[in-house]
């Protein structure tokens, strides 16, 4: 597995107005993630997405640093993004082509020059997530779960070693939620994912609980879920 290292990495943004204090989105944290599946749980606004976005440079740390297999996420941002794919909550914010296979082919354009080879590679990528039969369908004529699988295929087609997924099941119904979970857990890539689905979180090898921009628990997923439940009942995370 790859190694994701946070070294006193934190994120804050300047306040507005002359006297305003800066807003801390994520307090400095130091940890290494090497497990195949790592879940991140916490309330909305707790800092989960900020933590995830640090991994591939979508957000830059304002203190400390983040490394992926020894590559600094700022100084070596392009190399890091070759190793880390990012899956967003809403697939329609990620799918840019109108037809499923065309979107996957777009992800392959930089690495597969021949059009016929690119098409074949796109079909293989779609087949790997079980939706090759949707290759020629419009992204607007398939279900939410199928769109998320199409977005996943597009991300994975680029061949990155790590997948970061920000609440990938939030918009899905029960059936498509289960389908996407099973697909993600069957991937060979290391996966770091944020979720509000505590059953999904409990399937991970390790889980982080984030509250108020602080990682307040780091350990086995089942224990993390119980910690989060206790925190929510006490009036902390939700």
Automatic annotation (TrEMBL):
CDD domains, alphabetized: ABC_cobalt_CbiO_domain1
Keyword Transport in record: yes
Cross-referenced Pfam families: ABC_tran
Entry's Gene Ontology molecular function annotations: ATP binding
Alphabetized InterPro entries for the sequence: AAA+_ATPase (IPR003593), ABC_transporter-like_ATP-bd (IPR003439), ABC_transporter-like_CS (IPR017871), ABC_transpr_CbiO/EcfA_su (IPR015856), ECF_ABC_transporter_ATP-bd (IPR050095), P-loop_NTPase (IPR027417)
Transmembrane segments: none
Endpoints of the signal sequence: none
Protein family: Belongs to the ABC transporter superfamily.
Protein name (record): Energy-coupling factor ABC transporter ATP-binding protein
Lineage, uppermost ranks: Bacteria, Bacillati, Actinomycetota, Actinomycetes, Micrococcales
